[in-house]
């Protein structure tokens, strides 16, 4: 019931002494309501805190990590590398002014970790090697200044996943848990923002295929114990840790699994069941992982690009062109502004990019591939909208983003993410038909 319905029910109840009550007891995890599926604890755990601390070996993975938490996204992420460098240099300059003056200057996003550096009068220098592309939101890689100073939580775990320079090859399964949104797995091969799939709620966790020690040696992140569970259960010693990694990714996409354990998955890390055909699920997992990590290089879906110009705009353009007093630069500066839309009509299979441009022919199944409460295509549209920055300094000095500068890239990206979406849905529908 909604709040109003509950209040009305109480108002209508005449005698509470005649109501029948049920005694509610918590389960072993102190959950009072909606206990979830009782056999969830019998499944294989993905992680174990004892394993992370080096005291146990009873989970599939050794190390897990949350995504990077910057506390200053507008300052350390940008689609344009040049603009990001300007923002970073501004932060460093303002910080230096603060340490020199002895007061925390305005126009700088302070955080507890940065305040500690300030009080210790620690010098902060610009490090050109810290720029790399990270996954900020689903299918939205941005340039990221991955400095420990300017990211509130860039931890040892991240360096174990991607090496001491954060540039070593690795694949990671990312997912959200502990919130009301559906558990949404997404693979990536680099750093991921903490709020990648769940802005303003919960957090994004990462499970890497490998880890790196302090000397740069690559090691397995899947445990021998976990591999033994699979080789023993299936009686197949040819199963390798990477096969298990792909199997896990497939299971996390399984609609039957996600529905059966949806209450459990809102409260704790996933656990993994044994399905009948290990190799089929492992194959599906690899196919999905290759798709999701390599989304920028898949074949673009054959969508129809439609462009037009209104009569009013044509008239303005014609007048400017015919006026010999205008130089080309003035003509460019006075071109009429085109209103950005970035809206989807799912029923019609259309995306409006702006008032002159749209994409047609988007198949219905493309909208069925969702991460959280949004489809993959909607994530792309949301990230390229023109928004007013909340940070006043960013708004005043660095609000340079214009959709028109990225329009061609977004058209190409939407076509490729459409391909990823359709193929993902095809794989998932195959899962629905299989015997578990």
Short structural description:
This protein is of the alpha+beta class and 436 residues long. Helix content is 37%, strand content 14%. The strands form 6 sheets. It has a 4-stranded antiparallel sheet. A 4-stranded antiparallel sheet has the order 12-15-14-13, covered by helices on one side.
What does this structure look like?
The radius of gyration is 26 Å and the shape is globular. Helix 14 packs antiparallel against helix 16. The strands form six sheets. It has a four-stranded antiparallel sheet with strand order 2-8-6-7. A four-stranded antiparallel sheet has the order 12-15-14-13, covered by helices on one side. A three-stranded antiparallel sheet has the order 3-5-4. With 436 residues, it is α+β, with helices and mostly antiparallel strands. The chain folds into three domains: 114 residues, no CATH class; 147 residues, no CATH class; 130 residues, no CATH class. A hairpin with a 5-residue loop joins strand 9 and strand 10. The protein is built from 16 helices and 17 strands. The relative contact order is 0.11.
